[in-house]
């Protein structure tokens, strides 16, 4: 790739491994620190994906890390901390759970001055460029671990409701094996991923008008997902076991949000049901 753009006096050259921005009037750059110069060169970690909206250019590049560059073709450098904050917020909103894995590095470049800039153009350019970027996202197990749901935590939660038999190392190991087997089931993974992403979308207010802050009593779609996971793992009998884990919420289940807790409860309940078949 070798592309040249002019954003209201800011000359931008985009190559396969770098972006160079130059302006006679000077540039203000903000990332971890704020600096001034007449030319900025940023090395990219992977192939660039870019999009323009008005006088705002956004470039996403993913390799060893995710780099996001925003070039504002307006004389608004005096407001660059505010623009950087908005850009970070939009990147977080656009990428969702991936930001917790990839930890994007956001850099904003603008020309000096206290003029205005278009927040809608900033949002549009970031969303367009992020949508064009193909990322190898994390697996379901990695996403669960971000919530503290490790294999060991699930084994601990499962053992808390064991009655009538002694909890032994052998029993714990058998449950650990069942959890590993269940996480190899595509349908289980899809249901867990659905719960994880729905909860993240709601938490980040990407689904307007949906508020699960207090886990309202009339919400039952979370239980539908939990029952579906339990049923997929061990059939009808696991659905009854799911109700126990959903109501008592042992261990890590009680620390999770309203969608993920039921999905994990369904996984544990299903695996526990298989132990005692």
Characterise the protein shown here:
The protein is an alpha+beta fold and 277 residues long. The chain has two domains: 131 residues, no CATH class; 136 residues, PgpA-like (YutG-like, Orthogonal Bundle), CATH 1.10.3760.10. It is 46% helix and 23% strand. Strands 1, 2, 3, 4, 5, 6, 7 and 8 form an eight-stranded mixed β-sheet that branches. The chain is elongated. The N and C termini lie far apart (59 Å). The model has no long low-confidence stretch (mean pLDDT 89). InterPro entries: PgpA-like_sf, Ribazole_CobZ, YutG/PgpA. This is Alpha-ribazole phosphatase CobZ.
Our estimate of the beta-strand percent is 15-25%
Q: Categorize the overall geometry.
A: elongated
- Please name the CATH topology of the largest domain: YutG-like
> CATH architecture of the largest domain, please?
Orthogonal Bundle
Uncertain segments: none
Largest sheet descriptor? 8 strands, mixed
Question: CATH superfamily name of the largest domain?
Answer: PgpA-like
Count of alpha/pi helices: 10
Radius of gyration: 24 Å
The CATH class designation of the largest domain is Mainly Alpha
* Overall tally of domains: 2
Mean pLDDT: 89
What series of H and E elements makes up the topology? EEEEEEEHHEHHHHHHHH
Number of strands: 8
Structural class: alpha+beta
Helix share, percent: 40-55%
Distance between the termini: 59 Å
């Amino acid at each position: 790739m070798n592309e040249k753009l002019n954003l209201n006096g800011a000359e931008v050259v985009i190559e396969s491994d770098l972006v160079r921005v130059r302006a006679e009037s000077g540039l203000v750059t903000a990332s971890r620190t704020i600096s001034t110069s007449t030319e900025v060169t940023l090395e990219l970690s992977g192939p660039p994906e870019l999009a323009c909206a008005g006088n705002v250019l956004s470039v996403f590049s993913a390799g060893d890390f995710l780099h996001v560059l925003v070039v504002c073709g307006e004389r608004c450098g005096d407001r660059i901390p505010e623009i950087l904050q908005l850009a970070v917020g939009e990147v977080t909103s656009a990428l969702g759970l991936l930001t917790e894995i990839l930890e994007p590095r956001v850099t904003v470049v603008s020309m000096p001055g206290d003029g205005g800039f278009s927040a809608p153009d900033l949002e549009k350019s970031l969303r367009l460029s992020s949508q064009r970027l193909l990322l190898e996202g994390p697996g379901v197990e990695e996403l669960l671990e971000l919530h503290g749901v490790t294999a060991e935590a699930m084994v601990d939660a499962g053992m808390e409701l064991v009655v009538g038999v002694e909890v032994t190392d052998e029993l714990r190991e058998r449950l650990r094996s069942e959890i590993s087997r269940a996480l190899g089931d595509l349908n289980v993974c899809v249901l867990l991923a659905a719960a994880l992403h729905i909860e993240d979308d709601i938490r980040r207010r990407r689904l307007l008008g949906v508020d699960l802050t207090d886990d309202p009593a009339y919400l039952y779609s979370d239980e539908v997902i939990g029952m579906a996971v339990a049923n997929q793992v061990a059939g009808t009998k696991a659905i009854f076991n799911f109700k126990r884990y959903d109501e008592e919420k042992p261990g890590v289940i009680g620390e999770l949000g309203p969608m993920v807790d039921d999905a994990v409860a369904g996984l544990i309940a299903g695996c526990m049901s298989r132990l005692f078949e």
